[in-house]
Amino acid sequence: MSTKITLDVEGMTCDGCERHVGDALAAAGLSDLEIDWRRGFAAGIDSGSFDLEKATEALAGSSYEIISVTTPVTDAGGPAVGGDADYDLLILGSGSAAFAAAIKAKDLGASVAIVEKGTIGGTCVNIGCVPSKALLRPAELFYQAGHSPFTGVDTTADAADLAALVASKDELVGMLRREKYADLLDVYDIDLIEGTARFTGPNTVDVEGTNVTADRFLISTGASPWVPPIAGLDDTGYLTSTSALELTDVPGELIVVGANAIGLELGQLFAHLGSKVTWVEALDRIAPFEEPEISAILRTHLEAEGATVHEGATAKRAGRDGDRVWLVIDVDGRTERIEADHLLMATGRRPNTSGLGLDLAGVETDDRGAVVVDAGLATTNPSVWAAGDVTTTPQFVYVAAASGNIAAENALRDAGRELDLRTMPRVTFTTPSIASVGLTEAAARDGGHPVVTSILPLDAVPRALVNRDTIGTVKLVADESTGELLGAHVLADGAGDVIQAAVVAMNYHATVDEIAAMFHPYLTMSEALKLAAQTFNKDVKTLSCCAA
Q: Chain-centre distance of CA 395, in angstroms?
């Protein structure tokens, strides 16, 4: 009996590599070869004579290495895979989690279809990460042009053309949507079914009146902006994180309700373009899930840029008077009415599970509507997995992609893989930006760790001094008994790049002494991590440059 074999092959860098690897696999007994050096992928038909040892020997001494070998999809404890169903895996949604799952499933030799009722690509590329950052960067540069910190270099900023910026953003979004999503359907031979999907039972899905069958299902329908019930809000014509990115005129004044990542990013975007921004945060501080030192410094900075910040403020009523919107808030024991040209509600996102028929499928959701999954992304239905923002996992695109990959392999091969969030970083793209990984000081103490911390002001970092930009801090959280790094928290220019070094360190359970002993290039912001590690034992302000 003939069997399709797939292999992960490292070291291929060109079309010639494909030929060399193909010759070795053919000599080892595979026929009908398909090899893609970009994907590190090879596949062929084994008629019973394939010899992995012979293939490995043929590649010995070359730069190519067979990393793994996969046989066809096998049963994972649910309905049989590879039977009479239309597909081995049917995916609801077409974002990052969906495509990561689809690509993994195709590499495993499965047949796959994606069902999408709207625009292909999901949140990140269409209305989230890509468009927001495509506007945040020029807004930052525009603001910097009018606020040069360097003596002898005078710069000015006239007026921003928001309509032109939005058009440029839309062009970039269209290109990435095509190249990173739509074009991959043909590359991987993934079917796209357009329409609304709904479970009609534990193992059946209806798409616009057509029954589509599969052996396994993956729910990856994402999330949408959510707003709390506020009296009069529906009559204000408020903005969400989606519609705010479509404005073509800079608001003179803007109220932003919510000062977590989305609210901070979008509020500062418009502040940098010239809006007078007022933030309203219901919790006791902005950036409420970051270290309090970071929240305090960032608030001071935003206020220095001209913004107004209300913390511990509850929105009670909203309305519109002509071209102006108003919001009544309770703050500091008093009631205050604030007005602006626009009201942006940045109060979080809720999973897109309404109308999916999850009750008919026996798929449990929590009180927010999120699909409940275990560490392997399995739901309460043994035929259904879920990944991405629709689940109870953190709503980050890289978490969604990792989850989709894991879910597909678990669904199709019962691989037993689990999503490990211990070293998951998060970044808020403000100026300066916030980046964190691991435990906060409070979470570490709550977890029973004996905790020791270091806090490094940015004016102790040579790169920040050279940049004339010392707004920020680095805080490290370590286990006092072992010295192991438990968490790293950075407020600084380039914090999102700096944090990756901490991610790697935590992945290998490095101690702060080991981090301090590592080479860090001078006059980079990454040196702040070394200096913060040294701060546990030394006053770095009394050290010479690069002193160990």
A: 7
Nearest Cα residue to 486 out of 443, 516, 522: 443
Task: Please confirm, yes or no, whether 545 is among the known catalytic residues.
Answer: yes
Tokens 């990454």 belong to which residue?
A: 526
Distance CA 371, CA 367 (A): 10
CATH code, residues 87-124+169-224+350-413 = 3.50.50.60
User: What is the per-residue pLDDT across 17-64, written as a single tens digit (0 to 9) for each?
Assistant: 888 899 999 999 998 888 888 778 788 888 888 888 888 988 988 889
546 is catalytic: yes
Q: What is the DSSP letter of 209?
A: T
Query: Buried b / exposed e across 352-381, counting CB within 10 Å, b at 16+?
Result: bbeebbbeebbbebeeebbbebeebbbbeb
CATH 3.30.70.100 domain position(s) in the chain: 3-70
267/37 Cα distance (integer angstroms) = 43
Q: Which long-range contacts (CB under 8 A, 24 or more apart) does 530-536 make?
A: 531/456, 531/460, 531/461, 531/474, 532/454, 532/455, 532/456, 532/474, 532/475, 532/476, 532/488, 533/454, 533/476, 533/485, 535/454, 535/455, 535/456, 535/476, 536/452, 536/454, 536/476, 536/478, 536/512
Sheet bearing 204-207, strands edge to edge: 197-201, 204-207, 210-212
Q: Is the separation of the CB atoms in 168 and 134 below 8 Å?
A: yes
- CATH node for 233-347: 3.50.50.60
State the catalytic residue, choosing from 1, 87, 129, 345.
129
Radius of gyration of the chain (CA): 26
Q: Is 1 a catalytic residue?
A: no
Q: Give the pLDDT score at 7.
A: 85
Q: What is the pLDDT of residue 174?
A: 97
Structural class in CATH, domain 3-70 = alpha beta
298, 311 in Cβ contact below 8 A?
no
Query: Quick one: how far is CA 210 from the chain centroid?
Result: 34
Decide if 506 is catalytic. Answer: no
Active site residue 398: no
Annotation marks residue 87 as catalytic? no
Which candidate in 87, 175, 188, 545 is catalytic?
A: 545
Q: Assign domain 425-542 to a CATH class.
A: alpha beta
Q: Which residues of the chain have pLDDT under 70?
A: 1-2, 71-83
H or E segment to which residue 492 belongs = strand 485-492
508 is known as an active-site residue: no
Q: Give catalytic status of residue 14 as yes or no.
A: yes
Where in the chain are all domains bearing CATH 3.50.50.60?
87-124+169-224+350-413, 233-347
